[in-house]
Amino acid sequence: MTNHAAHLFSISTGSAEPIYRQLVDQVKRLVAAGQMAPGDGLPSVREVAQALALNPMTVSKAYSLLEMEGVLARRRGMGMEVAARAGGGQSATERAELLRPTLERAAMEARQLELDSDTVLSLFIQILKEQA
Amino acid sequence: MTTAIIQSAAISKHFGSASILSQLDWQIMPGQVIGLLGRNGAGKSTLLECLLGLRETDSGTVRIYGEDVSQLSDATRARIGYVPQKSDLFEWMTPRQMLDYFRALYPRWNGAKVDGLLERWGFDKLMQNKPISKLSGGEQQRLSIIRALAHDPELLVLDEPVSALDPVGRRDFLRELIDSVIERGTTVVFSTHILSDLERVALDLAFLKDGRIALQGRLDELLEGARRVVGPASLLDGKPLAGELRRQRAQDGTVSIITHGGAGLALLGKEAGVRVEPLSLEDLFIEVTQ
Amino acid sequence: MKTVLKDYWLVWRMAFSSRARHASAIVFGLSALSAIVVPLLILLKENDLLLAAGMSLRMAVTGVVLGWMLYFVPGAVKLNTPAAARLVPRLRRRLIEVTVLVWALAVAMATLLSLNTKLPTALVLLGTGGWIAAFGLAQSGQKLGTWVQFAFTGSFVFHRHIPPVLFEGVQHGTGFAVALLLMLAFAAYALQAMFLNGGEHHYAAREAQVLQIERMSPTGQFRERRQNRFDASLYRWVLQRDSAARNSGRLLAHLLGARNHWVNRAVVLAAIVALAGVALLVMHAKAGPETRQLVKDIGWMFPLPLLLGAMFDTEKRNVRLKDTAAEQALVRLAPPLPAGAPAFNRKVAVMLLRTALLEWAMLAGAVLCVGVMTGASAASLFTQACLCCLTLPLVGATLRDHAHRSGLLGWRLLLGFALSLAVSAGVGMELNRFTGLPPAVGAALASIAIAAVLVARGFRRAETAPYAFPAGRLA
């Protein structure tokens, strides 16, 4: 039941993704990777805003979105914590959904290179084997 | 519905034959943190000066807290803080003297905050007693910001406040803005070219182009909705897209369209030869202000 | 050869362009004009072709040399930045060459033209060479140049007091050779000091040069110099006192800057009065009874020119107000200042008027003090006071529509003052004729009336004008 510090997060300016979305994606990935266990406390909005030099409303928006999606839950009077449902119990399909943006980018590139699905898939399987 | 703090209607301003602002409308709501963007010479400084009543407009009205800007009451003026673009003001005085001078002019003065900021931003006793003309550009700017924050304003107008500061100075300024300005619900209007700072701190953006506010909206929504569609002319010619901003034809016959509508592009993106790319704030700035 | 000449022409135009836009046209036009017109007149009067031709040559060369001295040299010094000196050495070489060529031309011309006049040729050579070199040095910001110029001019004016053996020795033989060498050495030093070649010294000298050159322009004349410690501490005290008192009117007056504060003026005038007192005491002890009587009778007239300082004050204040446009914008946003253009303008007008009157009163007081010290009679003192009043319209001229016209009045101020003096004198005479009132009193009354009219007009304009100091281009 660790309370995470604000320097867990990082954002980059100048990208096409709004900052709140970067935070949302980061939290989701940390939870899926198990680095943030259910029940762990998250740094307060103010702490994150201070550490990353962000507008507190942006952080608050990210947290609210995560709460709505069920990734985070609000502790009574004490900020946010990782929701019990998320974390280990995340099914393979839910985790696979996190991979969707990357795969969509790869699919677009494959289309531009005018490769057919079989070539692409066999290449992907080969890469996965190399990485394992 | 809350009333706007700054309400400007149909402002026009021209210098000689050049028209800088033409029929510009702009509302700024309380608590907004809004960044004003525009090319060099687009008239950002002029617009901010007109909004504060420092310049006469040729036509149109500006109201701050409901009062006409040429007749601001004492109470209203005590709630306004302004950082002008020129930072070496009162250069014959020392920082201490200048701050004392303004303390005498403002009813509410947060001396503890001033002392804290002076210390944290590198103004030791020696520098506090050097004439402002002898300070470097960055030091002068920091002093200018301290002076504007010192009386705890509710409306803060900043004209390129960090142009001469190094990254550490800018980060310090952002932290101070977040800590004691935004937390207290102050309305902040600032013009800057440093887009990374805007992305961090601003929630709304306004683009000034051709004397009008060409584009305005929440930063997140603008970034999420802005797309560049590139494809062959055969597919894209004659097909206006929702929220289209600019359409350009390249030399090899492809057409490039910038939109900020976002919708209806999924289908278009699937067609062969058509690319739909997201835009960063810098790209958006370049495209909108060209 | 052609490229060198083209270089010279380019460099000449470059240096000129940094001054006025039409300086080139003015210099060449005027010298051409005088080179034609004056000899024509001489031809008509004396019918001496040789004289006319000589005069024409003289005029042309003088015109060119004057243009060179007043326009080219400051511009050339400005062009020779440390970076340019190091990275574009050809520019510096050309600048030096043109300077030397024109200097040599001037000296040669002067010497040649003095060949069959009564002036000793050697002295003309040495004098012209040294004086022009000193002038160049002064134009580029070195004070040594001004001193040497004074020395030359002084020795020319007071040549009767200098033992003639010095002049004789310098004109022939070894004396002349030594003097010539000295002059050439001085000219070389001046050249080197004007066109430095990079290094720390160059940067320091450059700042002084730029400031000096700027001070020679009309608005730059009132550029603030660095205050000495006493004046600075005095201003510091006044600022502290006004800040503590939170008096918005007096705080507004601080926009005029540190040097223009009346407190410093008071100190200067007190020093002048003290000096005058000391001088009078010395004179009293040493001089004979006729001198003493003379001082008593007309001594009170001598400090009157001090009052002309009021003219410079008005201009100084205007320049200062124009310069502090951005500061004024900030002060306008401060709560205690009145809202609305008419009220604000009125406050500014009152502030300016008060400052102007205060400074005028100090000037008049100093003049009267000195008058009293010379032991003048009550009647003379009364006349002196009346004459002081003649400069009141200058005080009234301080109030203007600052939104549309700030900056110098220049010759308009001079003209206006002359006009007011003439009108006052006329009224004084007329009143004297009709009522027997002494003319000075009549003139004083007229001046007071003119001043009152100017002030009333100024206030009326303040009501209708837009905000006194609209934000200029603040960046």
Number of helices of chain C: 21
Strand share of the residues of chain B? 25-35%
The CATH H-level homologous superfamily of the largest domain in chain B: P-loop containing nucleotide triphosphate hydrolases
Q: Biggest interface and its residues per chain?
A: B-C, 33 and 34 residues
- Overall mean confidence score, pLDDT of chain C: 81
Question: Would you tell me the structural class of the helices and strands of chain B?
Answer: alpha/beta
User: Beta-sheet strand percentage of chain C?
Assistant: under 5%
Largest sheet of chain B, in brief, is: 6 strands, mixed
How would you sum up the global shape of chain B?
elongated
Total domain modules of chain C: 2
> Helix segment count of chain B?
12
Given helix and strand content, the structural type of chain C is mainly alpha
- Poorly predicted ranges of chain B: none
Largest sheet of chain C: none
* Secondary structure: number of strands of chain C: 0
Roughly what is the average pLDDT of chain B, rounded to an integer? 88
The gross shape of chain C turns out to be globular
Structural features:
heterotrimer; A: 132 residues; mainly alpha; Arc Repressor Mutant, subunit A; 2 domains; two-stranded antiparallel sheet; B: alpha/beta; Rossmann fold; Alpha-Beta Plaits; 29% strand; elongated
Account of the 3D structure:
- The complex is a heterotrimer of chains A (132), B (290) and C (475).
- By secondary structure, chain A is mainly α.
- Chain A has two domains: 77 residues, Orthogonal Bundle (Arc Repressor Mutant, subunit A); 33 residues.
- Chain A is built from six helices and two strands; from the N terminus they run αααββααα.
- In chain A, strands 1-2 form a two-stranded antiparallel sheet.
- In chain A, a hairpin with a 5-residue loop joins strand 1 and strand 2.
- The radius of gyration of chain A is 18 Å and the shape is elongated.
- Chain B has twelve helices and 14 strands.
- In chain B, 47% of the residues are buried.
- In chain B, the strands form three sheets. Chain B has a six-stranded mixed beta sheet with strand order 6-7-8-3-9-10, with helices on both faces. Chain B has a four-stranded antiparallel beta sheet with strand order 2-1-4-5, with helices on one face.
- Helix content of chain C is 77%, strand content 0%.
- The two termini of chain C are 46 Å apart.
- The interface between B and C is medium-sized, with 33 and 34 residues.
